[in-house]
Design brief:
The complex is a heterodimer of chains A (244) and B (104).
Chain A lengths: L5 H32 L4 H10 L3 H12 L4 H11 L2 H13 L4 H9 L3 H21 L3 H7 L4 H25 L12 H10 L6 H16 L7 H19 L2
Helix pairs in contact in A: 1-3, 1-7, 1-9, 2-9, 3-4, 5-7, 7-9, 7-10, 11-12
Chain B lengths: L2 H22 L7 H7 L2 H15 L12 H16 L2 H18 L1
The chains are: A mainly alpha (244), B mainly alpha (104).
């Protein structure tokens, strides 16, 4: 493995992010096209992509702006739509604990759904391997020394793609035909990432219940269904683990 | 309120949510029960994102062989389970969806 070298980790993060980027590309273009339709200036639309840097929240913003909703409501809506990032922050925290404040500030900015998904599953797989190899604390510290570069690589790759696809959407419109179904690359990548995490009864129960709850709660507004489903899934996983 | 100011506030709130627990846990020793909870976060979140993408591609439940995304997704889950290889899973999943779209 490339683990002990910082740029090796960085490029591994970029590579792991690549399949997701195919799904992000049409998504960013749709956002750009919607922002133009909503009458937002090109400067504002493009800036949102680095100020807010969250796809679904940005698309919601275009709809609210188009309807002329007051700014305060827009702010509150974005806060609710992005609530799931608190979960990501909790989940990523143990892996970033030893880093300097500067690193935490930078990596938090890059903590989107897409970067989180590839990085957290990479770290969990790694921990599992380490457990099997029974490494000493010192060896662990050494192999983990640069693994935050993986999240950096994934985050930077996504950030750049998001900015470019926004520009493309602003100036060309959403030109990738829907029939290409490139957006399907996103759930497919998540499938590839989540399947290896399912390895005991508790994880099966957690994933199944979270999935069903997501269907039931799908019509809750502002992605609250996702947060609710995740919380239920986590709870079921913890309980199932306790009683197995 | 100026729209630019509103967007900056929305961005700062989003950033603070991403930073919140990363910053807070920097100084705390995490109790064991808490890390056991955290283990289920990626699993539950990703399952909650994937399931509606496959079963509700048009916004409502669609359990049918005409739902090509469901079929391609199921094949991808099988491939992921067997191969544990992300690239193969994604390529096969995309390929199956394209072929089904072409035939149907």
């Amino acid at each position: 493995m490339i683990r002990c070298d910082r740029w090796g980790e960085f490029w591994a993060g970029v590579r792991a992010e690549v399949p997701i980027l195919f799904g992000v590309l049409p998504f960013g273009m749709i956002y750009g096209a919607l922002a133009m339709e909503a009458g937002m200036s090109a400067a504002l639309s493009q800036s949102l992509s680095w100020i807010v840097f969250a796809g679904s929240a940005q698309i919601v913003i275009t709809q609210l702006v188009a309807y002329g909703v007051p700014n305060l409501v827009i702010i509150l809506t974005v806060a609710v739509v992005n609530l799931r990032h608190v979960l990501y922050s909790a989940s990523m925290a143990p892996y970033l604990q030893k880093l300097s404040l500067a690193w935490k500030l930078i990596l938090s900015y890059l903590l989107t759904d897409e970067a989180y998904a590839v990085a957290i599953t990479y770290y969990e797989r790694q921990d599992l391997q380490d457990k099997q190899m029974d490494l000493s604390a010192m060896a662990l510290e050494r192999t983990h020394e640069y693994r935050h570069y993986f999240l950096l690589g994934a985050g930077v790759a996504l950030w750049m793609t998001w900015q470019l696809s926004t520009s493309a959407g602003l100036f060309l419109g959403a030109v990738i035909p829907e029939s290409w179904s490139l957006d399907f690359a996103l759930p497919l990548t998540f499938i590839a990432l989540v399947t290896p995490l399912i390895k005991d009864r508790a994880s099966v129960a957690s994933a199944l219940v979270a999935g069903i709850a997501a269907l039931v709660a799908f019509n809750m507004p502002y992605k609250l269904g996702l947060v609710a489903a995740a919380l239920v899934g986590i709870l079921v996983g913890v309980v199932a683990e306790k009683y197995s | 309120m100026n729209i630019w100011l509103a967007m900056v506030i929305a961005g700062v709130i989003t950033y603070l949510m991403r930073l919140s627990l990363i910053l807070l846990f920097g100084h705390l020793e995490l109790p064991g029960w808490f890390t056991r909870i955290l283990r289920f976060v990626p699993l539950a979140v990703l399952a909650a994102i994937i399931t509606p993408e496959l079963l509700m591609p048009k916004g409502s439940l669609w359990l049918s062989v005409d739902n090509l995304r469901l079929l391609a997704g199921l094949v991808a889950i099988g491939v992921a389970w067997k191969t544990r290889n992300a690239v193969v899973t994604i390529l096969v999943g995309m390929g199956v969806l394209w072929i089904l779209q072409f035939i149907c």
